[in-house]
Every structure is written in structure tokens, then in C-alpha cells.
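REQUEST FORM: STRUCTURE PREDICTION
Request ID: SP-0412
Submitted by: Lab K.M.
Chain count: 1
Length (residues): 219
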Amino acid sequence: MADNAKPGRARPTHLVATTAAAVLFIAGAHVLGATSVRADDKPSVPPGTEADAEAPVPIDSNSPGLKLPQGATLAPPKVLDIAQVVEDLGGEERREDTNETVMMALQAEVLFPKDSAVLNARATARIQAIAAEINKQKATKVRVFGFTDNLGTYEHGKVLSKQRADAVQRQLAKDLDPGITFDIRGYSEDYPIADNGSEEGRKKNRRVEISFPRGEGGQ
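STATUS: Completed
RESULT:
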């Protein structure tokens, strides 16, 4: 008890709680310094969960009750670039959608014989479906990137992955609208998406990725 407190009279608990909350808020603002305070830092949650039931609290940057350090500002509102990934049961085809791009990946086994860059008979239909999506999005720039696993030499993988990317690009071009600009690369074993320590992982890493920006038809 403080020296000047009167005996037998307790300090109001709501005052203590209010003072503590104010101290925490001011301390937090001090730590932020001149950096921006973001309203979208809370990660999204699946629809229907308990956390999802709470609506986000709107923040008025001109509110007199909002205390920020001198020079600090609220970050402008921003739509997060959230990726949605869909993969078929066998993992042969994978699609990744964001607010700005579409990426479609095909495992090498569904396109080529082993250690070959010659498209097999069933590859044409799969590539035609991707070409239809590119036309739908009205894309004018397309990236075709080839990848291998880590078996064999890096240089051999570099050549093979580029040859496979070239083969897919040539087949794509047959069904695409004119005026498309291509970026074609072979990355060998770089940028794996799975563990090369197992055949299942290596199979996923042997792939060709086709990516393009969303356009007017992307909704």
C-alpha cells in the first residue's frame, strides 16, 4: 500500500485495469516508432470457424481516440495475395491461383517418356486445356519453366529441363492467340517443391510449369 493511501480504503479495481490497458497501448505504440500500423496482419481463417465469426474492427485513421507516435501513419488498405492450390489425386497436375497470376504444373511423366523431351500421345490434350485457359485470361505473356529431380548431373538436368520447356511451348503456341510473348527456361534440379530423398518427391519435382497473369477473363 502506498504511503499516502488511507487505511481501510481499497483502490478501485476498474481504475487499475484501465490504467494498465493505457500503459500497454502506449508502450506498443512506442515500440512501433515511425513504422506503419497494419490492419491486415491477422491471418485469414477457414470460413465457419469460431475465429471467422468475429468481424474485423474498422479503424478510422482520423479518429481522435487513435493514438500514434508523431510521424507514424496507418498502412493503406491492401488485398492480400492469397494463393489457392489445387492438385489432382495422383499429383500429375497442379494449379495455383493468386490475385494476379495463374500457374499450372504438369509432372514430366504425363508429358514425356523417361529422360526424353519428346511429347507423348496424351500430352497434347493436357496442353490444349492450358492453352484454352491462357486464351480465357487474355494473357499476352506466358512463362514456361522446366525442372528435374536431383538424379544425374546438374548440367544434364539443365539441358533436359530446357528442352522439355521448349517442347511444351511449341505445343502451346499452336492453340494460343497470336501476339503471345514467351519466357522459356530450364532450371534442372533448382527450386524443388518436394523432398528429393524419395521417389514420390522426385516425381513431383520433375515437372513443367506454365504461368501467366490474370486478365479480364480471370473471374
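NOTES: The beta strands are 84-87, 93-97, 101-107, 141-147, 181-186, 207-213.
Reviewed by: T.R.
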